[in-house]
């Protein structure tokens, strides 16, 4: 369920994050989360595409679905 807070990012910012999502996921998979800008992490969490789990950043089900849309070429 999306909350009002998760919808608070401006559309251009959401699109910028969406465009860089696959590269960001690659950084996480390669254990290079330190290379992700803290403001990006905060916004990905706001969008509920990532979450903190035991001190680790991980992709949520919503984030997985957005990645699938990106790889399938769905807008």
Layout of helices and strands, plus pairs?
Elements: H1 11-29, H2 38-46, E1 50-53, E2 56-59, H3 61-72
Antiparallel strand pairs: 1-2
Give a quick set of tags describing it.
75 residues, globular, 3 helices, Arc Repressor Mutant, subunit A, mainly alpha, 11% strand
From the alpha-carbon coordinates, what is the Rg to the nearest angstrom? Answer: 12 Å
Mean pLDDT: 89
Distance between the termini: 20 Å
The major pleated sheet works out as: 2 strands, antiparallel
Q: Spatial order of the strands in the main sheet?
A: 1-2
Structural class of the helices, strands and pairings?
mainly alpha
Task: Indicate how many domains the architecture comprises.
Answer: 1
Tally of DSSP β-strands = 2
**Rough shape?**
globular
What is the CATH topology classification name?
A: Arc Repressor Mutant, subunit A
Order of helices and strands: HHEEH
The assigned CATH architecture is Orthogonal Bundle
The CATH C-level class name: Mainly Alpha
Which blocks of ≥5 consecutive residues have pLDDT under 50? 1-6
């Amino acid at each position: 369920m999306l909350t009002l807070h998760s919808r608070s990012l401006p559309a251009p910012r959401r699109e910028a994050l969406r465009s860089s999502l696959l590269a960001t996921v690659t950084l996480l998979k390669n254990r290079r989360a330190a290379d992700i800008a803290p403001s990006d992490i905060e916004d990905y969490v706001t969008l509920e595409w990532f979450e903190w789990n035991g001190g680790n950043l991980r992709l949520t089900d919503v984030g997985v679905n957005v990645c699938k849309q990106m790889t399938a070429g769905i807008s």
